[in-house]
Amino acid sequence: MSAPVVAVQGEPANELLRLDNLKVHFPVKLPFIQRLLQREEAVVHAVDGVSFGIRAGEILGLVGESGCGKSTVGRSCVRLIKPTSGRIFFAGQNITKLGGENLRALRRRIQIIFQDPHASLTPAMTIGRGIGHPLWIHRSAFGPQKSGSEAFGQWVRQRVLNTMREVGLTPEEQLYDKFPGDLSGGQKQRAVIARALILEPNLLVVDEGVSMLDMSIRAKVLELMLDLKRRHGLTYLFITHDLATAKFICDRIAIMYMGRIVEIGPAREIYADPKHPYTKALLQVIPIPDPDKRKEKVLPRGEVPDAVHPPAGCRFHPRCPAVLATCGWEGRDFVDFLDEHLSDPKRAGDDESIVGPIEGWHADGLVASLEAKPMSVEKAVERVETILAEAPVAMTQAIESVSAQKRTVMVRFHPPNQLRQTQVQDRLVECLLYQ
Amino acid sequence: MRKGETLGVVGETGCGKSTLGKAILGILPVGTQVEGKILFRGRDLTMLTNQMYRRLRGEEIALIFQDPMTRLNPLMTVQDHFIEEIQAHEPVSSTEARTRAREALISMGIHEARIRNYPHEFSGGMRQRIMIALALVLKPSLLIADEPTTSLDVIVEAQILEILQDLKQAYSMSLLLITHNLGIVAEVCDRVAVLYAGKLVELGSVRDIFHKPLHPYTQGLLSSIIHLETKELHSIEGSPPDLIAPPSGCRFHPRCSFAQSICMEKVPPLVEFEPGHFAACHFGDKFL
Prior knowledge:
The structure holds two protein chains of two kinds. Chain A has helices at 32-37, 70-77, 100-107, 117-120, 127-137, 150-166, 172-175, 185-197, 215-232, 243-249, 267-272, 277-284, 331-342, 345-348, 351-355, 377-388, 393-398, and strands spanning 15-27, 43-55, 59-63, 85-90, 93-94, 110-113, 203-207, 235-240, 252-257, 260-266, 361-364, 367-370, 399-405, 408-413, 421-424, 427-430. By secondary structure, chain A is α+β, with helices and mostly antiparallel strands. In chain A, strands 6-7-8-3-9-10-16-15 form an eight-stranded mixed β-sheet, sandwiched between helices. The longest helix of chain A has 18 residues, at 215-232. In chain B, 37% of the residues lie in helices and 15% in strands. Chain B is built from eleven helices and ten strands. Chain B has helices at 17-25, 50-59, 68-71, 78-89, 94-107, 124-136, 154-171, 182-188, 206-211, 216-223, 261-265, and strands at residues 6-10, 39-40, 43-44, 61-64, 142-146, 174-179, 191-196, 199-205, 271-274, 277-279. An eight-stranded mixed β-sheet of chain B has the order 4-5-6-1-7-8-10-9, sandwiched between helices. In chain B, strands 2-3 form a two-stranded antiparallel sheet. The two termini of chain B are 24 Å apart. Classes of the chains: A alpha+beta, B alpha/beta. The interface between A and B is large, with 49 and 47 residues.
């Protein structure tokens, strides 16, 4: 498997945050015996070479399905997760390995908002105390004369009340002593936003910050975020699976799939004319709230594959409606296709008795092989070729040979083309169609 | 609900839409007070004994829940789920039940060899397809789907909705789709019921609801959808009421910009403002 090459970009001067080839791999916990037998360490390739920058004052949308690594990118930016490799710059400073007091100081400048406002608030802390808590944690930064004194407590309270008013958590005097359980979902999310703002950060990472809110209040919270951006010159990394919300709020959009950014550029252009087939698919499935505009959809096949063993070449190729012969076809794609073929008795006929049970097939890199020793290897090769007539054209074109070696049937694929991020108009796309 | 139709039940968190689905199936918590009637093919379901209800569930009315992971028993293989369900209703052998389970899985695009797998060995979308196969294996005439795609990714959501549509036609089944997602309703439903704070506030064809909403709540809900053509954000002031002490009169009046004094005093009846289009608003005719 060849790793996609990352395009090297210039660094605009006004960038607040820059990720440079960020990788985050999580080890898979295996039982002891399996760990011994494993040839290489199994890791989840959550983020696998992500580079982008966010300019000061801009909202960058990071969009993708669950498990694509978007939240891991967000958490890495706040340094809640240690990157496996790559570098993170904040305001020109390399923060990848920051620790101790320096990391604490960084957290005053980058804050994060999570999806579930209920889980984000400590149930035993009143709203006022919860919002003011970061000020106590960072009290040394607000002058030694204030720290610990009664005056500091007064100052915190005043600042909390002001922030509550600013995020629309009113009447603030009354809500100050309430507990999270007394508040509605929208109010709780406002409290979470207030807590994130109280340290006056420069960058806010919003991880699905409105997804759990009901439609009728979602708009209000989005408006609040836009409003705060205007008033404080905030910069946002807005992580969401909802392309419609992202369209409304974001200046630029990055589309993520299986740990890679497949398309990134100005929001307006990406929505008007998506380039990557995955972006197209995502845009197409957004329901249109008008019964007169129902239309047939061409949906990608299947689901997101296992991130422990991501597909070769372009990771979207097994599901891509526009896939080419060079996109990364490999042995297991053939096994998957055969599995699907054999699972339909009408199409399969007696195929299973000739090409063997699906469990007999093994995929190793570019090769799929049947070691189950079928009755007649020649007949099996012949039948595999017949079955392949039904396969996606791109896949059949990618096959180098179907052969019999000793008593093993082998399907061998051509190696994929090297994938590079390519400049297409104002954006970067990682797709062979544009290379 | 008519035979073969898809009725969407929409509303926000806590409006009672899931309770409605559970009430139809008689699976509300013990001690819940239920008034009124649920007529299914002329029979009042609230009068059924527990035993009669057990026969009806699965066989005539089936349910798919939101989260497919927690609804499949992690200690049972897929085939055990099917055998248990089929044998609870029909006196058939395990072999016969297994054959039917295989057919059901194949119709959902899942390889029959995987019938011996456990739920955790399947992806989210596959689990939901297994749930659907389980719900349909006894060929019910009504399927209640409670947020069937909410925990799924957008592309898989579209795939599952497509499957539901196809099956509905193939089995000439009726579908009660409970959802908070109005976009999905516009794409798959024939008629729509809008719930607010435990009350039915509007009922009509999907075109009536989306093009000529009569209730101010429906109007607010529609304008708050964020979709690709959204130019301006709208929302409804306030938040849904506490159902322990709901507002007097029309339950929406504290959030309604058209509210008059009558709205605080009198509960608006559900009125048919035009053929097939009902709304519970004192001023529904203003929006005709």
